[in-house]
Write a structure and sequence with these properties.
The protein is of the alpha+beta class. Helix content is about 35%, strand content about 30%. The protein folds into two domains: about 5-180, Gcn5-related N-acetyltransferase (GNAT) (Aminopeptidase, 3-Layer(aba) Sandwich); about 185-375, Aminopeptidase (3-Layer(aba) Sandwich). α12 (about 325-340) packs parallel to α13.
């Protein structure tokens, strides 16, 4: 089969942005594990005037098109997409010149990926970057990482999914592992007795109290999450503090699906020292909508949402000076016990840095095991 001849150009105008968004449906046609994103949400995310990431970041979207008719389609057909991203906040925090790539989707031919990577790399070089990292859409605060193990089940809410051949495309074009992100899974309705007894002893010994989110004071609770998040994660690999606008945007986006009893605060002597945020796995419902709310997508989501039986614990952290007291185990145990009572009998804990033993040990004590691995890659940029 002859190699495809492709041209990669920046996205221009609403029509091409629509092509950028909808190209994924071609890549995943027939893949039962892919969960289509809501097209309306993705449009807002990519809109430079609407998503708060664009207030401190620069992004260029690219499409790869066939130059001539061939086995992959007619001339002009879209065969790949990528975004090149400069997160100025990341580079300020880490004192780096790292650019990112994200929203990467491509047909199986690796030569198309080569053209996409070169276009993104050239744009990042013009911005003064010396390294390209990804995938991240847009940052570690959103979806990030390439699925490299665990292709036998759909992703949970706000987690990524991709074809297996993406691994070869990246690694054959000079990308090397920067960090693995682990997803733990637990499917057991009976919390281990030893964990419950340990949690009881810890509560008495440390005087740590765990409380649920108060939805009537939602604005105040969001402020508390903002403070705790930026304090507890500040030394983590790849961490970028969320701006006030980003926290507010995420809170508004998630509020309709939040279950207040899946959001916990740990307090010591009445002062907050950590929090945990879990979400019902709305991907179980979104899978039925095929990316559209109308005319029938919303109805399908509402029907399927009643059947959600899984949760994703997407963040749990303790401020540094209070780590090692057991607050993490107390929150895990509370989420486990209360979640089962509320009809959730399975959960994913993700993502967790592969070298974060402090977070991994309590999960393994609960009986959770790693079932998916996501990889963040790096490649040098030669200017």
């Amino acid at each position: 089969m002859p190699l495809p001849s492709v041209q990669v150009t920046p996205v221009q105008g609403a029509r091409e942005l629509d092509e950028f968004i909808k190209f994924a449906w071609r890549v995943y046609r027939g893949d039962r594990n892919w969960v289509p994103p809501l097209i309306s949400d993705l449009r807002k995310m990519l809109d430079r005037s609407k998503h708060p990431f664009h207030q401190h970041g620069e992004v260029e979207y690219f499409l790869a098109r066939l130059r001539e008719d061939g086995p992959l389609g007619r001339a002009g057909a879209v065969v790949g997409r990528i975004a090149a991203i400069v997160n100025h906040l990341h580079n300020e925090v880490h004192e780096e010149k790292t650019g990112f790539f994200g929203f990467y989707e491509v047909l199986p031919d690796p030569m198309i990926s080569a053209a996409l990577f070169e276009a993104a790399s050239a744009w990042l070089a013009e911005k003064g970057m010396d390294r390209m990292r990804g995938p991240a859409s847009f940052s570690t605060n959103e979806e990030c990482g390439l699925l490299v193990d665990g292709f036998d089940s759909p992703p949970m809410v706000m987690m990524t999914y991709n074809p297996r051949y993406y691994i070869e495309h990246l690694e054959s074009h000079g990308f090397t592992k920067a960090m693995d992100l682990l997803a733990y899974y637990l499917d057991d309705r009976v919390p281990p007795d030893r964990v419950l007894k340990l949690a009881e002893r810890l509560t008495k010994r440390t005087k740590i109290a765990i409380r649920f989110l108060e939805k009537k004071n939602f604005g105040r609770e969001v402020e508390l999450v903002r403070d705790l998040y930026n304090r507890a994660w500040q030394k983590n690999w790849g961490f970028v503090p969320m701006t006030d606008a980003e926290i507010d945007h995420m809170a508004a986006s998630l509020k309709p699906v939040l279950d207040p009893r899946l959001i916990l605060f740990a307090e010591l002597d009445g002062k907050p020292i950590g929090f945990a945020l879990a979400l019902p796995d709305v991907n179980q419902a979104l899978a039925k909508a095929n990316g559209r709310l109308f005319p029938f997508g919303l109805l399908r989501i509402l029907i399927e949402s009643r059947r959600i039986h899984r949760v994703r614990v997407l963040t749990l952290g303790i401020v540094e000076e209070h780590r090692g007291l057991g607050a993490d185990l107390l929150m895990y145990a509370m989420l486990y016990s209360d979640g089962v009572r509320r009809g959730y009998h399975a959960g994913e804990f993700s993502w967790i840095l592969e070298d974060n033993e402090l977070m991994r040990r309590p999960l393994e004590a609960l009986g959770a095991t790693v079932y998916k691995t996501y990889r963040v890659y790096d490649r040098s940029i030669v200017r």
